[in-house]
Amino acid sequence: MLKRKPGQDGARTAPDMANKKPRYEAFHKPILSTSNIRLNNNDYTVGWICALSFEMAAAKAMLDKEHPDLLNDLNNNDNNSYIFGEMEGHNVVIACLPAGVYGTTSAATVAGQMLSSFRIRFGLMVGVGGGVPGGKDDIRLGDIVVSQPAKGFGGVLQYDYGKTVQEGRLERTGVLNKPPGQLLTAIAKLQGNHRLETSRIPDFLTEMANRYPTQIANFVSCGQENDQLFEAEYDHSDSTDICTNCDKSRLVARSTRRGNNPLVHYGLVASGNSVMKDGGTRDRLAKELGILCFDMEAAGLMDNFPCLVVRGICDYADSHKNEQWQGYAAATAAAYVKELLSVIPASQVKEMPTVQMVTPEADFDATYDNGTNSSGVGTHRGGDKYITIYDDSDSELASIKDGSRVSPNRDDDRYITIDDDSDSGLGNIEDVSSGNGGSTVEEDSDIEEGINEGGDVGWYDDESGEAESELSSDD
To answer: What are phi and psi of 449, to 5 degrees?
Structure first.
């Protein structure tokens, strides 16, 4: 584990790596490679979302290759700023929440805009969180918590959402979706690996130090001696960020760990729209719900952006929380994700359905559109609602959207099914080949997108020029 060493002026300094041969040298280059090959938005299969800028920096530091920015491939409604790159063979697109705008709603907005521009197969919410100390898990600062289904929850629960009942008690309602099955099976494989061999997280952290030697001081461990846990009922003593003036007699006595490497814990992440900064409330909720850590974003993603939540523990979700451990916690979380991706074949991910195909009731507002009629865009508009269909360059049929609902589709090179919501105001599309009105558009080799003389957009027989199935402006 990388550890901070105090300099003469008390500043944080990077560890001395000059005489130490990194263990990762056999399987990774120490210098980040920059690729000159510009990919398009359909090439990126993994969507990585961060809440804070230093979390995004840690994610970037874990890339094996950094790709150039995309120039004109983003949707017009996509306001995100992205970092593109390759990690363990996967093409990854990384986004961060707007500066100063946090919480579940902001996370959902960033995810929705990402999905409007990319054919993501699964998502990752990676960053820091407040850990629940004590118990059998014995979580320490710098450890990693990974969302995993438990106690009837999918891995993430929104602890501040529900209805107020007798005596002001909050009765929580609803269950958020669990991570995609492919990620859960990868977790199981990684857990098995860790029973027989050491984690690669320390190697990835050392690699990060070699790539960024002048900046690494912000991402190294503060040391076990600075991992301080105060009694739950003892509040921070003053307005300063650090606990210099806090009563050290109120520290909880804990055994020193053997070794300095972070541990990985699997279980429930509690998410809400407010920062958890109270030890008593933390412990009460943890006892009631079996929570391992707290965050402010994950609950906004799980239903519409199938993802895994990975949190590096930077504080204990009490009044003593400060920024001292944030950089290291962000780095350990990013390093875990890199190790997880290493056990998932990139070729397997490319064959997975896109997020748009497996979230039939996503509430994202951005149009999913590749921005050009020449590649097969047909548009039907009714008032302020719309439906967009396109066949992209690799002949996969895209999702259909009416402004508030992404309909499920099927990609077997024969047809695309449109789920026509009865109250959407967007009428059925007629299947001319069968003579029946319905919600299936046949796609044959001799049918292509076009516009007839009346201005109607649809599919036309490329030999006769007659419409096979139309989307017209007055359907």
So the answer is: -75, 145
- What integer pLDDT is reported at residue 30 of this predicted model? 45
- β-pair type (156-158, 82-87): unpaired
Query: Read out DSSP for 356-418?
Result: HHH-TT----S----S-GGGTEEEEEETTEEEEEEB-TT-PBPPEE-SS-EEP---SSSEEE-
Q: Report the first-to-last Cα separation within the chain, whole angstroms.
A: 64
Dihedral in degrees, nearest 10, Cα atoms 182, 184, 190, 192: -120
Contact 309, 146 (CB under 8 A): yes
Mean pLDDT by 10 residues, the chain (475 residues): 46 37 36 68 95 97 94 87 96 96 91 94 96 92 96 89 60 76 96 96 96 91 91 79 81 90 96 88 92 92 91 93 93 98 95 83 38 30 34 38 35 35 36 34 40 47 47 39
Which helix (H) or strand (E) segment holds residue 350: the answer is: helix 346-350
Contacts of 378 (CB under 8 A, 6+ apart): 388, 389, 390, 449, 457, 458, 459, 471
CA separation, residue 44 to residues 89, 205, 465 (Å): 11, 25, 36
Computed from CA positions of residues 256, 262, 267, 272, in that sequence, does the dihedral angle turn out positive or negative?
positive
Question: From residue 52, how far is each of 106, 124, 320, 329, 435 by CA, in Å?
Answer: 12, 14, 20, 12, 55
Cα–Cα dist 437/420, whole Å: 12
The DSSP secondary-structure symbol of 343 reads T
Q: Of all helices (H) and strands (E), which one includes residue 126?
A: strand 122-131
What is the distance between the alpha carbons of residues 314 and 131, in angstroms, rounded to a whole number? Answer: 7
- Classified as helix, coil or strand, 113 is helix
Domains annotated for the chain, with CATH where assigned, are 5-350 (3.40.50.1580), 367-471 (no CATH)
DSSP-derived letter for residue 9 is T
What are the structure tokens assigned to 151, written together? 């106690």
CB-CB contact of 262 with 331 (8 Å): no
CB 118 within 8 A of CB 47: yes
CA distance 58 to 425: 46
Strands 156-158, 264-271: pairing is parallel
